[in-house]
Specification:
The complex is a heterodimer of chains A (567) and B (213). Chain A is mainly alpha-helical. Chain A is 46% helix and 3% strand. A 3-stranded antiparallel β-sheet of chain A has the order 1-2-3, with no helix packed on it. In chain A, a hairpin with a 3-residue loop joins strand 1 (205-207) and strand 2 (211-214). In chain A, helix 14 runs antiparallel to helix 15, helix 17 runs antiparallel to helix 18 and helix 17 (413-422) runs parallel beside helix 21 (476-485). Chain B has 213 residues and is mainly α. Chain B folds into 3 domains: 1-53, no CATH class; 56-121, no CATH class; 141-213, no CATH class. Chain B has 11 helices and 2 strands; from the N terminus they run βαβαααααααααα. Chain B has helices at residues 14-19, 59-68, 71-75, 77-87, 102-113, 121-139, 148-155, 161-174, 176-179, 183-192, 197-212, and strands spanning 2-4, 22-23. The chains are: A mainly alpha (567), B mainly alpha (213). Chains A and B meet through helix 8, helix 10, helix 12, strand 5 and helix 13 of A and strand 1, helix 1, helix 2, helix 5 and helix 6 of B.
């Protein structure tokens, strides 16, 4: 008897009816007539629930009484879920078990007692065979072939079949129908992992120091409790476990990308940040107080109420750090950042000079915009606004002056005058005008960007020139200078050394608006000009050739310091 | 007028840059229109990619704009969130290195400290994002340049407590080989960065146990 017979599983995928028929001596009818097959691969014996004719029950009772003891049915069918009674009865006739060899087949004795229910009747064997054949023909006639094909498709998956075979071979010889597949118990604390579908064959994880580790099914705690990977592998091998881990753990180094910049620059800036870092004490109070750094507060005190406003337990999450700096202390902090940039520029060339210069500009501007001196005017007051504007103007002059003469590329001293004026270098422009023999122009330059009636007067002078034939006799540099002083800064002036938004914004700030105009209003006007494409877009992602040349000179001559001698 | 595009890895090769620059149309006639947006390379934020004027601006221009915005407007998270994210984008101060968030992190920290940027949920999210990105940037330094103590210092600035603990402990475990035998780094992490000592002990214990295997 095969395992598939016991478990009600149809392993035969062929459609041949004859292949499924067990040839029995003396059975001739079954070779030509269709044999009732299992309508389902389910292990439940549905036929036993049907009303059985009395005659057949009598024959069964007769067969069960042959050896004088209640015997059981042995099904010779291929799909025993629907018993072919004819086969069963015929097989019983030739069953060696009923001649005293039943002990060699323990499964017969373990059959359900319901098969022995008909043991009370007695009848001749010939009649039983005839009745079984008649019943078989009747069942075959009533069975729909199409339905059988549909049912045949509803077979148990091969994996389950293989499991049944393996289980029968190992320890389940006495298992009854229906087959109950063993439920795989899983650790509820484990999350379903797609990689675990392959069991120990593959399971990757990140190990310390960025190593990709493949430890099989073992976790670090298991290995540690056993005594190491090798000891665990030996133990598993001795037990004959098919999941014996590899003796050697495979590791792969993971490179988390490239870049990061210069490590010296990063550390130098972080050291400055460390100087102003405190532990987050209690929300706004700590933020407003700007108290000195309390290092003892950063330790893990374990006080659950002394941490962040949400009541985070410091023992669990650690103390949050934050920067603490007042506006009075801000200039010192910004100077520390500037010094760090300067030091990095001296010792390392990994950081692009353009980035260093931009960083210098940013910290200088932060100091200008938010830094306060002791006793300064209150924030947002009129005096504060004017002071900020003056500071921003000073910052812009630094930015334009740091690019220096390399920006313009002009060699003529006369042409340098309007360009110096446009970049805010009024002192140099005045000096150049004097040296060119034009003191009257020098006086105008000295009065420019100071408000008053000079812009209107310069504009009126330009109008006179343009409306007459005199214009062609006026030097172009003089006309250009008057245009700058008159505030004709928009649309974009290609004849001026306007190489980036700083110079262009400086033109708007110095000559396009009055000295009392706040920086905010100047910015609004500048952004409107940008929208109408009459001003340079404040993009910082590209540098021009002249700026690169200036940066080269700037870094090589005076690293990380802004030249202010051009004023 | 010519324009070149520079990148962080080619800054030492200026002659080649100068020879490969791309000329643009410029009219030298006074009072004539010229292209205020010269063509640049196809880096994010450049004209070739984003022709709108809303593209990223220079970090200094952003600082100027931030100084003009009132604190009430900054507290309006719906309006300030996008603006702040654009202001502290890496491409506002570097050409093409999206991973370089160092300056943005330092600037944001400082501006929050002086009250220029209010502490709201939106700004806290942005701060945490910058913090994690900066720690990731520091994580790229390996070998002798490894700075796990500074990684931990940066991560301890996270405002979200559970994430702060998780990220910090993760770095401690990952970089344990770089600090386990260095008392100076351990003292820095406990005394300066405020890392709870049990975190260090747990990471070191696990590391030494694995090393023993």
């Amino acid at each position: 008897m095969s395992a598939n017979g016991r478990y009600g599983l149809d392993l035969d995928a062929s459609d041949s009816e004859d292949d499924d028929v067990m040839r029995l001596p003396g059975e001739t009818i079954s070779k030509t007539s269709p044999r009732p097959r299992s309508s389902s691969s389910d292990a439940s014996d549905t036929t036993s629930n049907e009303p059985m004719p009395m005659r057949v029950s009598a024959e069964v009772a007769f067969l069960g009484e042959v050896d004088g003891a209640p015997s059981v049915h042995r099904s010779a069918r291929k799909t025993p879920s629907k018993p072919a009674l004819g086969h069963a009865l015929a097989n019983d006739l030739f069953d060696v078990g009923r001649f005293g060899l039943g002990d060699f087949f323990p499964t017969r004795d373990s059959r359900s007692p319901r098969h022995e229910s008909g043991a009370a009747g007695v009848g001749p064997g010939a009649d039983a065979l005839a009745a079984a054949a008649a019943l078989r023909r009747e069942l075959a006639a009533s069975t729909n072939t199409a339905q059988r094909r549909v049912d045949r498709k509803r077979r148990v998956p091969p994996a389950s079949t293989a499991f049944a075979i393996a289980q029968s071979v190992l320890r389940d010889l006495e298992q009854k129908k229906p087959l109950q597949f063993r439920e795989i118990k899983r650790d509820p604390t484990r999350v379903t992992d797609a990689h675990s579908m392959f069991g120990s064959s593959f399971r990757a994880s990140w190990g310390p120091n960025g190593q990709l580790v493949h430890p099989g099914r073992l976790c670090a705690s298991t290995v540690a409790s056993v005594g190491g990977f090798q000891a665990c592998a030996n133990a598993q091998t001795q037990k004959g476990s098919p999941h014996a881990p590899h003796a050697k753990v495979t590791t792969e180094r993971f490179a988390p990308g490239v870049g990061g910049g210069c490590v010296a620059a990063r550390v130098a800036a972080l050291e400055v940040a460390l100087q102003v870092t405190v532990a987050y004490a209690s929300g706004r109070d700590a933020m407003d107080s700007g108290d000195a750094l309390d290092r003892s507060d950063t330790l893990d005190s374990g006080d659950p109420d002394s941490d962040a406003p949400n009541g985070w337990c410091s023992a669990t999450f650690g103390k949050r750090l934050r920067a603490s700096c007042s506006r009075v202390d801000l200039p010192g902090v910004c100077d520390a950042y500037l010094n760090s940039v300067e030091n990095v520029a001296l010792v390392s060339n990994k950081t692009p000079s353009s980035d260093l210069k931009l960083e210098v500009s940013a910290w200088d501007l932060v100091k200008t915009l938010w830094g306060d001196a002791p006793g300064a005017a209150p924030v947002a007051s009129a005096a504060d606004r004017h002071r900020r504007r003056a500071s921003v103007s000073e910052w812009l002059r630094k930015q334009t002056a740091s690019r220096g003469d390399a920006v313009s590329g002009v060699t003529s001293p006369k042409l340098l005058v309007p360009e110096k004026t446009a970049t805010g270098a009024l002192v140099s422009a005045t000096r150049l005008a004097c040296s060119n023999g034009d003191p009257r122009l020098a006086t105008l330059i000295a009065q420019s960007a100071r408000g008053g009636a000079l812009p209107e007067l310069a504009g009126a002078q330009l109008k006179i020139w343009r409306d007459s034939v005199v214009e062609k006799y006026v030097p172009s540099e003089t006309t250009l200078l008057f245009e700058v002083i008159a505030g004709e800064v928009a649309p974009f002036r290609s004849d001026l050394p306007v190489k980036d938004w700083r110079t262009n914004f400086g033109l708007h700030l110095w000559y396009g608006t009055s000295p009392s105009t706040t920086v905010g209003k100047v910015m609004d006007g500048y952004l409107r000009s940008v929208e109408t494409e009459s001003a340079t877009y404040p993009s910082g992602t590209a540098l021009r050739v002249s700026q690169i040349q200036a940066h080269l000179r700037f870094i090589s001559n005076a690293p990380a310091t802004v030249r202010t001698d051009d004023r | 007028m010519t324009v070149v595009h520079t990148s962080s890895n080619t800054h030492n090769d200026y002659p080649s840059l100068l020879s490969t620059h791309r000329p643009i149309h410029v009219q030298h006639t006074p009072n004539k229109w010229t292209d205020p947006f010269p063509s640049q390379s196809s880096a994010p934020g450049s004209l070739d990619v984003d022709e709108k004027t809303s593209r990223l601006k220079d970090v200094c221009f952003n600082l100027l704009a931030l100084a003009q915005v009132s604190s009430d407007e900054l507290r309006d998270e719906a309006r300030s969130d996008t603006m702040l994210r654009q202001m502290f984008h890496p491409l506002t101060y570097v050409a093409d290195d999206l991973t370089n968030v160092a300056l943005a992190w330092h600037l944001f920290n400082t501006l929050v400290a002086v009250g220029a940027v209010p502490e709201t949920q939106s700004t806290s999210r942005l701060h945490d994002e910058l913090t994690v990105n900066f720690a990731t940037q520091l994580d790229s330094f390996t070998g002798v340049n490894s700075v796990p103590e500074w990684q931990v210092f940066v991560l301890m600035h996270l405002s979200d407590g559970p994430r702060r603990a998780d990220a910090t402990r993760r770095v401690l475990h990952k970089r344990c080989a770089d600090w386990a035998n260095d008392d100076g780094k351990k003292n820095f992490m406990t005394e300066k960065a405020g890392v709870p000592k049990p975190w260090l002990d747990a990471a070191e214990l696990r590391w030494r146990r694995n090393c023993a295997d």
